[in-house]
Design goal:
By secondary structure, the protein is an alpha+beta fold. It has one domain: Sandwich (Jelly Rolls). It has four helices and 15 strands. Strands 1, 2, 3, 4, 5, 6, 8, 13 and 15 form a nine-stranded mixed beta sheet that branches. A hairpin with a 3-residue loop joins strand 1 and strand 2. The longest helix has 13 residues. The protein is globular, with a radius of gyration of 18 Å. 31% of the residues are buried. The structure holds fe (ii) ion.
Length: 246
C-alpha cells in the first residue's frame, strides 16, 4: 500500500490489497447480490442511470448488532473483511478517525450512471471509496471530483417551508430537484478542485463535509464501475439503530 497524495482533506492510497487479495475481493464483488434502490436518493440526477448496490456491512469495533438488524457485522468471513482490515490499519484512520465505526456497501455504476454534487449529508466524520473493478481506462469516465474549498453548507440561503400549518425557516438546505442554490454556491465559491481516476485497487479517504461528485461512466466502458464506499461514524451519530443497548 502506498500513499499517492495526502492533504488535510483527503488521502489517496494505491495497491491497497495484494494481488491475491484483490482477486479474492473481485470474486466477492462479482458474486454479491445487487439491487437498485427503489427510493430516489437526492444526489442522483433524474436523467442518469441508477447504480446497483449491495446491502451494508459494518465494522462495529466488536459491538454486537441487534438480531433484527439487516446489516452484516465484521468479521463476515468474506473478502470484504480484507478491506476493513486495511482501512482501520492505515495511519490515516488511526490519526483522523480513531474509534469510528465503518460501513461498507458495494456500488456498480453502469454506463450512464454517476452521482451529482453532494456532501454526504454532513453527519459523517468522513467517507472512503475503494475501486474494485478488474480494469479501468482513463477515457471511461467515473472520475471522483472533489472541491477543496471548505464551504460547508453555511453559504446556502435560508428557505421557508410550511410545517404543521406554520411557516418556518429552514437553514442550509439546497433545492434537491433543481439545485439552483447549490449550483450558484459552487459557481461563486469554488476556486480549488481535484479529480481522482477510479484506478483499480485504489482507496480514497475524504474528510466529512467536502463537496464531491462522480462523473458519468461513458458508454464505452467495458465494465461497470465497481466501488465499495462507506462512512466513518462516531458514537454521537443520530442513527444508532444497530448498536446494542441503544
Ligand atoms: Fe459521497
Amino acid at each position: 500500500m502506498k500513499v499517492v497524495k495526502e492533504t488535510d482533506l483527503y488521502i489517496i492510497l494505491d495497491d491497497v490489497l495484494s494481488e491475491s487479495e484483490f482477486e479474492l475481493f473481485r470474486e466477492y464483488t462479482e458474486t454479491s447480490e445487487y439491487a437498485r434502490n427503489p427510493k430516489w436518493i437526492k444526489p442522483w440526477d433524474l436523467a442518469d442511470q441508477m447504480p446497483w448496490q449491495t446491502g451494508e456491512t459494518v465494522y462495529t469495533r466488536g459491538k454486537q448488532m441487534r438480531p433484527d438488524d439487516p446489516r452484516r457485522a465484521y468479521p463476515t468471513g468474506l473478502a470484504i473483511d480484507l478491506l476493513f482490515d486495511r482501512i482501520v490499519g492505515t495511519k490515516y484512520y488511526r490519526k483522523h478517525l480513531p474509534d469510528t465505526y465503518v460501513t461498507a456497501r458495494t456500488y456498480l455504476h453502469p454506463p450512464g450512471s454517476g452521482l451529482d454534487w453532494h456532501d454526504d449529508g454532513g453527519r459523517f466524520q468522513g467517507a472512503y471509496t475503494f475501486y474494485a473493478h478488474p480494469r479501468w481506462h482513463a477515457s471511461w469516465g467515473g472520475e471522483l471530483l472533489v472541491v477543496e474549498n471548505d464551504l460547508g453548507r453555511r453559504l446556502l440561503p435560508d428557505k421557508k417551508r410550511m410545517q404543521d400549518g406554520k411557516t418556518e425557516t429552514v437553514k442550509e438546505s439546497w433545492s434537491v430537484l433543481y439545485k439552483d442554490d447549490l449550483s450558484e454556491m459552487l459557481f461563486d465559491n469554488v476556486t480549488s478542485t481535484e479529480f481522482v481516476f477510479p484506478k483499480p485497487n485504489r482507496l480514497v479517504f475524504l474528510k466529512g463535509g467536502l463537496w464531491h461528485k462522480i462523473c458519468l461512466v461513458k458508454p464505452t466502458a467495458a465494465f461497470a464501475r465497481c466501488a465499495v464506499a462507506g462512512f466513518f461514524l462516531t458514537d454521537q451519530d443520530p442513527v444508532n439503530f444497530w448498536r446494542q443497548g441503544s
